[in-house]
Design goal:
The chain is of the alpha/beta class and about 270 residues long. It is built from seven helices and eleven strands. Helices cover about 40% and strands about 20% of the residues. The strands form two sheets. Strands 1, 2, 3, 4, 5, 6, 7, 10 and 11 form a nine-stranded mixed β-sheet that branches. The chain has a two-stranded antiparallel ribbon with strand order 8-9.
Length: about 270
């Protein structure tokens, strides 16, 4: 396990010793808001897939260092490979990972600042919340708490693993904590939501090739049915009882069930051309 580096106390106005890792590819429409939310961090790494819009111009406006992804000019197939590039180039002791279509809430950034002052190497689950076009944060969704290990000390992890739904591999004995502030993800159109899920299906099909019926039964059919059953119970709880706060639109919830069914069928290990 690497030797721990303890972050010293920061003086007022000094930037936080954090390396922000953002995966980008033609992300000009959302990147400015994302980078504005982390402007108090010392380093921003834009790990780019060959953007042809104004993504790189915006990144450099915020002083970001642009690093190429392994694959250029098309969607990522291995998210861990791209995030591991960020780990390799990080010059700061703390790592905050982001997607280019989301941004950090002020509450989350305040918690992160307190953590950095403490300086104890650990990893944090960061909740991700949907946001409506009018700025209203969705309070209830079957995907919640939707927590991801996206903030951690560099000495707390070895590498990122899994090509899809990636996560960092922790060093032995590292404590996992939770943050209350959220990373905010604007809710796109229903078509955007479908398109994103279709892309995940393509990646899951590639990942499952050659693994056979036993793997499909245990890791795809049973796992997916179990998760959808839990989601169905949560859906009844969310919509069956009047409660304050906005709920994820039911059409978006139903897309998740459609996605699960298509995923089961698409990953069946039949011979493919």
């Amino acid at each position: 396990m690497p030797q721990h580096r303890v972050t010293p106390s920061l003086s007022r106005g000094e930037k936080l010793p954090i390396s922000v890792h953002v995966l980008t590819w033609n992300s000009g429409k959302t990147l400015r808001r994302a980078l504005e939310s982390v402007k108090d961090c010392t380093e921003i790494l834009a790990i780019d897939g060959g953007s042809t819009d104004d993504t790189l111009t915006i990144a450099r406006e915020f002083g970001a260092k642009v690093i190429p992804q392994p694959i250029q000019g098309r969607p990522l197939e291995d998210f861990s490979a791209a995030r591991n590039i960020g780990l390799k180039h990080a010059a700061q002791p703390w790592i905050l990972s982001m997607d280019s279509d989301e941004y950090v809430s002020p509450e989350l950034m305040a918690e992160i600042a307190q953590t950095v002052h403490a300086g104890v190497p650990c990893a944090f689950l960061v909740p991700r919340r949907y946001v409506l076009p009018d700025g209203t944060v969705i309070r209830y969704a079957t995907t919640y708490p939707n927590e991801r290990l996206y903030f951690f000390h560099r000495d707390a992890v070895t590498k990122w693993i899994k090509p899809v739904h990636e996560r960092p591999e922790l060093c032995p004995g590292i404590e996992i904590k939770r943050l209350g502030g959220a990373s905010l993800a604007p809710l796109g159109t229903l078509e955007d939501y479908r398109r994103k899920n279709e892309r995940y299906i393509e990646l899951e099909v590639q990942k499952s090739r050659g693994k056979g019926w036993g793997h499909w039964l245990a890791h795809r059919l049973l796992h997916t049915l179990r998760s959808r059953l839990i989601a169905f119970v949560k859906l009844l709880w969310i919509w069956g009882i009047p409660r304050p706060g906005r709920r994820l639109p039911i059409r978006h919830e139903l897309v998740r069930f459609w996605y699960a069914w298509k995923l089961i069928v698409a990953t069946m290990p039949f011979p493919r051309k």
